[in-house]
Amino acid sequence: CPQGICRKMLLYILGLVAAWFIYRWYKESKRVPNEGDKYVFITGCDSGFGNNLAKHLDKLGFRVIAGCYTEKGEIELKKVSSERLTTIPLDVTKSESIKKATAFIKDLVGEKDLIWSHPSHSDVVGVISVSFVAPGLWAVVNNAGVGTPSGPCDWLNVEDYKSMLAVNLNGVIDVTLSVLQLIKKAKGRVVNVASVFGRISPFGGPYCVSKYGVEAFNDSLRLNVAPFGVKVLCIEPGFFKTSMSDTAVLKSNMKKLWDRLPQETKDDYGPAFLDISKQFTDGDLMKVVSCMEHAISALHPRYRYSPGWDAKFFWLPLSYMPSCLVDRFFLRYTPHPKVSVL
């Protein structure tokens, strides 16, 4: 085409793109009113994303209910929070614990006083996140999760899968269904913390399986409850610096799995396979927390959030590529077993 026409077309397209970004910024900048009337129940508040979200929402004026796995986590969080924030113990792998939390939430929204005793815990689990608007629950934020055991599929057994799915997937479903009626009354929010590894599986083990499950539950639930005015949002972080991505923890996990392998499998892989390179992680947890807060407080939240430059510009684009190309990339740049034929 003539140079002048092409230039005009390019300027027209750039103008439309700029106008769309301005419109989206204006639309997403609007916030729900009366934050002080909205209760927010957050799981996994002992550390990491959940802990930071609880403190952040407390400062914004929300009435936070923070679920903590340990009593120490509750005490430490209370020390740095206002009187608006309430902590409760919660084990998302146990339905009885979830029922107690739901009953507590119902009574709290109804402005009844409760004394909560902290149970003993024997297993490592996470917690959950939720928000309310009287007369119902404003939002539930399913933030509980674990990252180990993780390794090649033939290093694991079905119990390894069950233990992680109990926290990362079944816990999300159990918690959501237990409070869903309260959320429907408030026309509130369900915020599910999945992962970019719910879109692509670069490594073996139950973690990606659990996050794919969260994505599926999130999508089906979003359609089911839309007629009730409930919004279901998904957070898909990339690699961030948390206890789940700590190199020492991952190496310890691999060593434990290696020690229980039969000799035949050890011979197939070779001891060099145990070497774990240092992960490139983002230490700014507020990138994820800001997405969570927007999903809770924005008048027009996004269906999906992908915090982290690696998620936006590497993992998600890679997830849309043909499987043959993705496989070729991972097989070239990831460790191979000793007896590999590639």
UniProtKB/TrEMBL annotation:
GO MF annotation: an example: oxidoreductase activity
Keyword vocabulary terms for this entry: Membrane, Oxidoreductase, Transmembrane, Transmembrane helix
One GO term of the biological process aspect: steroid metabolic process
InterPro entries linked to this entry: NAD(P)-bd_dom_sf, Sc_DH/Rdtase_CS, SDR_fam
Gene3D superfamilies: NAD(P)-binding Rossmann-like Domain
Transmembrane domains' residue ranges: 9-26
Keyword Transmembrane helix in annotation: yes
PANTHER family tied to this protein: DEHYDROGENASE_REDUCTASE (SDR FAMILY) MEMBER 9, SHORT-CHAIN DEHYDROGENASE/REDUCTASE FAMILY 9C
Stated family: Belongs to the short-chain dehydrogenases/reductases (SDR) family.
Name of the protein in question: Dehydrogenase/reductase (SDR family) member 9
Gene: DHRS9
